Amino acid sequence: MDKYKALIGLEMHCEISETNTKVFSSARNSYSDLANSNIRPVDMGFPGTLPVVNKEAVRKALMASIILNCQQPEYLYFERKNYYYPDLPKGFQITQETKPAPIGIYGQLKFECNGEEKTVRINNLHLEEDAASTDHFSDSSTIDYNRAGVPLLELVTYPDFHSADEAVAFLETMRSIYQYAGISEADSKKGQIRCDVNVSIMDKDADPTNEENWGTKVEIKNVNSFGGVRDAINYEIKRQIELKEDGSYDQMEQQTRRWNEETGTTIYMRSKVDAIDYKYFVEPNIPKFRIPKSWIEEIKHDIPSLAPERKAKYIKEYGLTEYDATILVKEKSVSDYFEETIACGANPKSASNWITTRLLGYINKLFISIKDVFLTPKMLKELIDMVDKREISSKQAKDVFYESLDEKKDPKDIVSSKGMKQNSDDSEIRSIIINILDNNSENVEKYKSGRTNVFDFFVGQVMKQTRGQANPEMTREILTEELGKR
Length: 486
What we know:
The protein is 39% helix and 20% strand. By secondary structure, it is α+β, with helices and mostly antiparallel strands. A hairpin with a 4-residue loop joins β7 and β8.
């Protein structure tokens, strides 16, 4: 790689999941394991059916466009992209392509990669309908039309990435934006995110702004995970460098390939020497409509705090480290859990410590979401309070924490049922200690003569008289203080 530079562009597809219905029909826009349960005649392209634009889908698409610093159009058009495939029952896709402008053009986004700030240019962002999903088996194929007509945002970047790390960092940033803005769950497990990757290489010292220096572009279609994007890019860069080194790179045609996860390779699909003629034309059943500037301003005002704003708040207002703040904001569900814990009155640093070290470790081990855990933010706050008030020790709290998660029990009930609550009454513990010291003057003298192991004898006597409920830390502090007086 020392002699070459990679040019990487992304086409990121993300379903808008936060709408009640699909983009052009009244079918429910919700994930379902039951195939073909969320469909209407419009989705199936039945004769006589007409599309109706989902205003909320347009609003969320405009919000994404604004966040990406794109230009928004004065008028919104939809067009037909004509091609046949079994997962496209109408024989065309309603999308945006050739008219004055789609939902957003010529934007840019700053993102962080390995501690450095990067900037990527956005070519366009357009709103369209998703196709159905197809599953291929050894002897048959099945089609689930639940996905047909789901609102889909396609984001197209310029080839501004130079490594797989940069590309994946950008995708993670976009997923965060979609989640924090309430545009999409952006859950790859539900097929809500897919990505096409364009890769080429050029001489390292050549000017990347001059397109004549660019190498032959290879498109890798429908990569379904960020890990897959990383591996596909790294493999394709390696493959193209090998072609460059053996002299056959210049004969390589522009092409489309697919990523094979099992073999860890990209596989040739078809040539892309000629662009496919989709015969775009304006969708005749959806008239163009004007986007009022007042609506744009209203949407700008509705953009919630995104991950960078929350991270800055956690560092500045709560005194968290940059490392902990970064972990907390990576997933919106985790950040929401932390914020709700704070809203319940928990100390921010204590809440952060419990969530980042123990709770995230627990859910990552079990491959579950923080939304699935039994322990609520209110319960966590109460557990933290019991430690802060010295009602239970830190070790006890840890045991209670995991028992609560595993057995689905309220931490307070666990502490109560097991008699774990500690006595942290200063005056009561002090009185007990003074009485023990008064009745063990010989051992007091041994301690003062340097036999410090006697200290544990006194601690044991306190625990015996309090049936083990005296706060150990407080007991040691008061005992040290009282022995110092003698």
